[in-house]
Amino acid sequence: MEDSKITDLFFERSEQALTELSDKYEKLCKKLAVNILGNNEDALECINDSYLAVWNTIPPQRPDSLKYYLLRIVRNTSVKRYHSNTAKKRNSYYDVALQELEECLPDESSVESRLLSDEITSLINFFLKSQSKTNRIIFVRRYYFSDSIGAISQKVNLSENNVCVRLSRMRKELKNHLEKEGIII
């Protein structure tokens, strides 16, 4: 079923909307949540919480892309659960991906940085538009979807070493781009 029809079902408050949403996007949502959490049970809970969030926000929201609206909610829910689960532990995949970006992003704890988050998002989006399609895929798969280097290398048909080198170069370029725009790292 098309996303627009599923959205219409949400506006009609039909429970069929949740069934259609789950049928269409559950595998993608599960992959994202498991990549972040590393745990199927927590991932399924986050997905169910995300479905509830979609139910509660549509209406009044009418997202342009239901898929990315849902994925954003699943990601945010999973990240919150991740932080709750790992307050004093380490999760290798997600922590490693976050640590890779630490050197090129400002400290989120400062008030100034929080105020600049929209500007930083725009600058990162501008930076990504300047990259090749393959590099954009690599960057987003690693730092948004938390895919492993191996999974990314298979997806883009490059060696793991090549993916690592590209990520390293993009992080350096991103850091330089942000510093050039006046963002203090």
Structural overview:
- With 185 residues, this protein is mainly alpha-helical.
- The protein folds into 2 domains: 3-85, RNA polymerase sigma factor, region 2, helix turn helix motif (Rna Polymerase Sigma Factor, Chain: A), CATH 1.10.1740.10; 92-180, Orthogonal Bundle (Arc Repressor Mutant, subunit A).
- Helix content is 75%, strand content 0%.
- The protein is built from 10 helices and no strands.
- The mean pLDDT is 85.
Short précis:
The protein is an all-alpha fold and 185 residues long. The chain is built from 10 helices and no strands. The radius of gyration is 18 Å and the shape is globular.
Q: The CATH topology of the largest domain, please? A: Arc Repressor Mutant, subunit A
Structural category: mainly alpha
Count the DSSP helices: 10
- Tell me the series of helices and strands, N- to C-terminal: HHHHHHHHHH
Strand content: under 5%
Number of domains: 2
What is the level 1 CATH name of the largest domain? Mainly Alpha
Q: What gross morphology would you assign?
A: globular
Rg, nearest Å: 18 Å
Number of strands: 0
CATH level 4 superfamily of the largest domain: Winged helix-like DNA-binding domain superfamily/Winged helix DNA-binding domain
Query: How much helical structure, as a percent, in the residues?
Result: over 70%
